[in-house]
UniProtKB/TrEMBL annotation:
Name by which UniProt lists this protein: Flavin-dependent thymidylate synthase
Species whose genome carries this gene: Phaeovulum vinaykumarii
Pathway linked to the protein: Pyrimidine metabolism; dTTP biosynthesis
InterPro entries referenced in this protein's UniProt entry, alphabetically: Thymidylate_synthase_ThyX, Thymidylate_synthase_ThyX_sf
Residues annotated for FAD binding in this entry: 89, 112-114, 120, 215-217, 221
Active site: residue positions: 226 (involved in ionization of n3 of dump, leading to its activation)
NCBIfam families attached to this UniProt entry: thyX
Residues that span the membrane, as ranges: none
Record field: catalytic activity: dUMP + (6R)-5,10-methylene-5,6,7,8-tetrahydrofolate + NADPH + H(+) = dTMP + (6S)-5,6,7,8-tetrahydrofolate + NADP(+)
Name of the gene encoding the protein in the UniProt record: thyX
Length: 304
């Protein structure tokens, strides 16, 4: 993980100067503030700022009663009720701003989540660093035979080595050309290409950085999709770290999220009917279930 010296200095300055505040403070998140967690080979995630805590969710929910924060046990019950019944707006009262360094192909998946505010490193303004994501050997896998959007068995031996060599060589060559095109050389009659054009030959595993600010409701939505095993490993590993951070920040809300979203399963009308028939003692098969092949496979994976 490479923070620039300027970023490092900014973090040290921020951590060296605690200030008293009248705002809600979440002790778990205070411990997380500015800590850069390494992700993948050169990536990172760190909390730059946040607003609100578990109490802020309850305070917003109770606005209709005109009451302030009550006992922790009441807060827990209220937060669980809100999560269980999809009363989402109180969760939007909490916000968090992350600094993320991530490969561009991961950023393309991430940016699909439109309910966040983003400011990305400008490769028109600055030169991108010579940093590429090269998968660790335990992530280098063949195409899955059952899942068109997934990986199967690990590549091994000479094939794994060849793939790693190709990834490194291609990235290095592309970056060498990038630098070459950028660099002016008046003696050789070379002006140097504009940064906004020279970047276009860089591979999708080059790292970019952004500030990503989101409210807790939409962050939970992001985590449900991206911390899930269906998500690609390279984005999931960021989501899993963010989930740990959120757990420190709003422990009651995270607990409710883990119970009612992450650990929950939803049932279609057909699935409910099949479960009821099973509970009544009937043996239901794929043919008599009224479900498609894919639905039946997913149903059996979940319910046996
Ligand atoms: C495992 C996985 C595989 C995927 N595969 C593909 C793929 O092959 N191709 C592909 O293109 N994408 C793919 N995606 C991306 C996916 O389709 C969504 O675009 C992405 O997950 C963002 O979800 P979202 O729109 O719910 O999130 P957000 O953009 O954060 O939106 C959150 C919620 O806000 C509401 N919302 C936001 N914007 C609008 C709007 N303009 N109109 C109406 N409602 C809105 C919706 O309720 C939405 O669910 C994949 C995602 C996952 C997790």
């Amino acid at each position: 993980m490479a923070l620039t010296p300027e970023q490092q200095a900014e973090i040290e300055a921020a951590r060296a100067e605690p200030r008293p505040t009248l705002r809600a403070v979440a002790p778990g998140m205070e411990a997380q503030l500015h800590i850069a967690h390494p992700i993948l080979d050169h990536g990172l995630i760190r909390v730059v700022d946040y607003m609100g805590d578990d109490g802020a969710i309850c305070q917003a929910a109770r606005v209709s009663y005109g009451r302030g924060t009550k006992a922790v046990s009441d807060d827990r019950g209220l937060i669980r009720y809100l999560m269980r019944h999809w009363h989402s707006t109180p969760f939007e009262m909490c916000e968090v701003k992350f600094h993320v360094k991530l490969p561009i192909f991961v950023a393309r998946q991430w940016i699909r989540h439109r309910t966040a505010n983003v400011n990305e490193y400008s490769a028109r303004y600055s030169v991108l660093d010579r940093e590429f994501y090269i998968p660790a050997p335990e992530q280098l896998a063949a195409q899955s035979r059952t899942n068109n959007q997934g990986r199967g068995q690990l590549l091994e031996g000479a094939e794994a080595q060849r793939v790693l060599d190709i990834l490194r060589e291609d990235a290095t060559r592309a970056y060498d050309h990038y630098e070459d095109m950028l660099t002016p050389d008046p003696e050789a009659g070379k002006q140097g290409l504009a940064r906004e054009l020279a970047r276009m030959n860089l591979p999708a595993n080059v790292y970019t950085q952004w500030y990503w600010k989101v409210d807790l409701h939409n962050l939970f939505h992001f985590l449900r999709l991206r911390a899930d095993h269906h998500a690609q490993y390279e984005i999931r590993i960021y989501a899993e770290k963010m989930a740990e951070i959120v757990k420190d920040w709003v422990p009651l809300a995270y607990e409710a999220f883990a119970d009612y979203r992450l650990g929950a399963a939803s049932l279609s009308a057909q699935a409910r009917a099949v479960l009821k028939r099973r509970l009544a003692g009937e043996t239901v098969t794929e043919e008599t279930s009224g479900m498609s092949k894919g639905e039946w496979r997913e149903f059996v994976e979940e319910w046996g």
